[in-house]
Amino acid sequence: MSEKVRPTKLKFKGEKTKKKRKREDGDEGGSSSRRKRKDEEEAPETWVLPEQAIEIRGPTYILHPSDPPICITYDSTRGRIVLHSVDKDKTEDGTQPAALLDRTPTEVSQVWVTTRIAGASTINLRTGVGEGKFLSCDKHGIVSADREARGPQEEWTPVVFPDGMVAFQNVYEKYLSVDEVAGGTMSLRGDSEEVGFRERFWVKIQSKYKKEANAEEKKRKEGLSMDSNLDEASVNKTYQAWGAGRSVLSAEDKKELKKAKKEGRLAEALLDRRAKLKR
């Protein structure tokens, strides 16, 4: 049997071979350029870990490093949350399952959709299957996903730790956790006072949503930096409009209104401010 011929790029006689230039490790901006290139080459649907809370948005995959490791899923047929053992997920080629942080969803039921109101630090987790029910927790710590509308009990504050793990705090300032119930099955609770092993989850999001979140945060910070150097009265006077439909508050104006509210003279301060803007 003859050896398999390795395909190569077609070359003409006399053509010079171009040498690829390798960037030295010591080159200025080398590591940052490589990181930027890696981010650009990353597929939008690639599952990645969030580095900060604002990046948690869009399709979300939530894992817990218990033994065996589990992910939070939703059974739309029975209408309830199920903690599914990811070790049961079969690989296409029959090989051993990947490491926990390399896992990705194998079913739509394992994906939650994270949304948030603009400017809010809290998020809502909605099922990716069925009618889109919200993950909620009542004052007794009972966690469910049976509500179609969101309210205070459907709000969660994600806390990202330096190691990349995430804890979810509810409106009652208690934490989401996994709990072993009768028969050795696992369930979710929402009444933990402190964050320990049971309250720490691995969260994976898609790359494109992480990039979007960082781009929006960058624009927001740039806008705040510009606004802090502006005086509200002069801005409105320049454009001859009542704030162009909104009021641009400087840091000093915000501080004054906050102080007035604390001292019980907010109404008076607002009237003074309005008179100032009309001049």
Topology:
Blueprint: H1 30-41, E1 47-48, E2 58-64, E3 70-75, E4 80-85, E5 111-115, E6 124-127, E7 134-137, E8 143-147, E9 157-160, E10 166-169, E11 175-180, E12 186-192, E13 202-206, H2 207-227, H3 232-239, H4 251-262, H5 266-278
Antiparallel strand pairs: 1-13, 2-3, 2-5, 2-13, 3-4, 5-6, 7-8, 9-10, 11-12
Written description of the protein model:
The structure is a single chain. The chain has 279 residues and is an alpha+beta fold. It contains 5 helices and 13 strands. Strands 1, 2, 3, 4, 5, 6 and 13 form a 7-stranded antiparallel sheet that branches. Strands 7-8 form a two-stranded antiparallel sheet. A two-stranded antiparallel sheet has the order 9-10. α4 packs antiparallel against α5 (266-278). It is globular.
Q: How would you summarize this macromolecular structure in one to three sentences?
A:
The chain is built from five helices and 13 strands.
- General shape: globular
The biggest sheet, with number of strands, parallel, antiparallel or mixed sense and barrel status, is: 7 strands, antiparallel
Contiguous uncertain segments of 5+ residues: 9-13, 238-245
Mean pLDDT: 80
Find the structural class using helix and strand composition: alpha+beta
Query: N-to-C terminal Cα separation, in Å?
Result: 94 Å
Task: Give short descriptive properties of this protein.
single chain, 279 residues, alpha+beta, seven-stranded antiparallel sheet, two-stranded antiparallel sheet, 5 helices, 13 strands, 23% strand, globular
